[in-house]
Amino acid sequence: MLTDTFGLSHLWAQSDIVIKLVAFTLVVMSVASWYLIAVRTTRQLRARRFDSAVEGFWSAASLDEGLRRVSQVAPDSPFEALARQGAAAAEHLRRHTAADTLGGKLDADEFVTRALRKSIALSTAQLESGLTVLASIGSTAPFVGLFGTVWGIYHALIGISTSGAATLDKVAGPVGEALIMTAFGLFVAIPAVLAYNTFTRANRLELSELDAFAHDLLAWFTTGTRLASAPAEQAPRAVTPAAAAKLAGAA
Question: What is the pTM assigned to this prediction?
């Protein structure tokens, strides 16, 4: 039977150096992809504790206590780095500048803002590490497998023309073996693409939370209070066309 004669072992035995290099490349790409998926998944599971770390920071009685809580709940996290960077910038300003004047306060705002932006930039680079590799694997693996298929079919057709036998059993086996390379390329690419999309969305949500935390830190370090969102009943209401007409008439 063809299934007994042809298969992966037969493809590997009769393949040349090009097919073996293609297969080896796909194996390396698959191992790298699943390694990054495992590392990023572990980090995402740890990231679930970041919300409680932020709440613990704001519920602390002092800055030192808040930093200690963040370090305990989310050590080596972007939120801990952001809080410590902002605290270090505020402490530097307190020691080396006098903020009794309006100009001094404006300089303090700018200095703390730059420190927080630098921390967010470094955290963004760390969050995006490995995603380029996943994107590259997801976009190139199908073409690598397709190249192996085209090369395999080319050699299969050469072998058929040399033997002079163009029957169905002589054509279907070698061509079917060559198509395995395309399937292997898709097997490598699909998990990488799905993982890239998932991690990109998770990073976008985490960076939005980090940006909100940075705004709260900036307000606290410069004014001594945390920004609070207005209640829904106190939110400004939209001006209706009738009210706008009355206002225009009154003017």
Answer: 0.72
Classify residue 241: in a domain, yes or no.
Answer: no
Task: Provide φ and ψ at 53, rounded to 5°.
Answer: -65, -40
Q: How confident is the model at residue 55 (pLDDT cuts 50, 70, 90)?
A: confident
- List pLDDT tens digits, range 110-138: 888 888 999 899 988 888 888 999 999 99
Count: domains in the chain: 1
Question: Taking a C-beta distance cutoff of 8 angstroms, is the pair 197, 189 a contact?
Answer: no
Quick one: pLDDT at residue 30?
A: 95
> Measuring CA to CA, which residue among 144, 159, 145 is closest to residue 6?
159
Is 96 inside any structural domain?
Answer: yes
DSSP string, 190-247: HHHHHHHHHHHHHHHHHHHHHHHHHHHHHHHHHHSS---PPPGGGSPPPPPHHHHHHH
- Print the domain residue range for 190: 2-226
- What is the H or E stretch that residue 48 is in? none
Residue 107: other Cβ atoms inside 10 A: 14
Q: Say how far apart CA 43 and CA 94 lie, in whole Å.
A: 36
User: What 3-state DSSP class applies to 75?
Assistant: coil
Residue 26 contacts residue 12 (beta carbons within 8 Å): no
